[in-house]
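Worked Example 4.2. Consider the chain below.
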Amino acid sequence: MEKKLRQAQGNWVDGDRFWGRENDLAILTRMIDEGAHISIVAQRRMGKTSLMKELAGRLSDRYICLYLDLQEENAPADAVAALAMILKPHESLWRKTKALFSNVLHAVSGTVEEISVSDIGIKLRSGLDAGNWMDKGDELFRILSKSEKPVLLMIDEIPLMVNRMLRAGDEGITKENITNVDRFMSWLRKNSIEHQGKIRIILSGSIGLEPVLHQAGLSAVINNYQPYDLKPWDFETAADCLRALANNYEIEYEDDAELVMVEKLGCCIPHHVQIFFSSVYTMCMHRKNMRFRADEVRDLYEREMLGLRGHAELTHYEERLSLYFSKERLPLVKAILTETAVSDILTKPVLLVLRDEYTAQDECPDEALAEMLRILQHDGYLARKKEGYVYESGLLRDWWKKAHEEFYTRRK
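Applying the procedure from the previous section yields the following structure tokens:
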């Protein structure tokens, strides 16, 4: 029977829309069952959140699965309040949590169960500050450790919160900011060790956690987490996904068009595979012809994936560079990415020319340049080859080239 797949909608998928990660699920399940804490390492749009949601669905019979999203949080007290809030659906855990925060929750009008979730969150946050968040957080972890089933705590977007903490204020990464991040991450590390076996923690995010911490000299605070590298789909998995989508929407590929699509992407990031198919489906519907030929791939790729449709998706790759790099470093970083896109490969001699052109050498010493390249590799922009650096994603390379080459002079 031919497999069918519906298009993904929203920021994550599960159930019958989940695709191509069975081996990852099996490996992660084994690690979780063995009591490991895990840090998922992957570039953007690889499906980290979907993977965690699917894990929660499959493991809920033997774990209390908690999903904590720190995307909007700015401080440790925010994180502790958010942790308390996700316990609300679990009656026995929530009862103990209400007792822990009784000093602030008793002031609400009506019973806690009658007021809105947002109001409860505001009250919980009001009861936390720099002086007590750690003690309250410790007690929350003790509550979790005494639950009837082991706890799987999945913390998403922790790198975004940590990065905001590091760069809080107008002076960038200061000693005070580093100290605050160190306290938070060390607190999390302490609880992960103290409750080993009772609580498993998964860390993840849309930017890399280790590069963020490395900039502050704090990489050691996550050395008790086993890194798990969530890789792009291989060509076969991506092609099978395109076939399953076509089967569901009655599209017929001609001359192995799906294989040409996969080759065009180069790096099969799941979301990029999905939006490529969406472009195919939209075009076929408009022309009322559900056959899609291999010789149509290039034109559709240029018109849609590198056009306005792709622009909305890929612009984020440029925008998030400011999360890692200072205003002084950004021109050099963008020149590195543009040179690589235009020339297909960035060699060391050209790299040094760019460094000298965009910043004096003493302002960007070799170790700073190496760290810059390390971040670009970790976060999925570039890959290192014997001859130099290249783009990992053909789509990102082609988009960056189209967006930046017009006013750029290639270096030699």
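The mean pLDDT is 91. The first helix runs from residue 22 to 33. Compare this with Example 4.1 before moving on.
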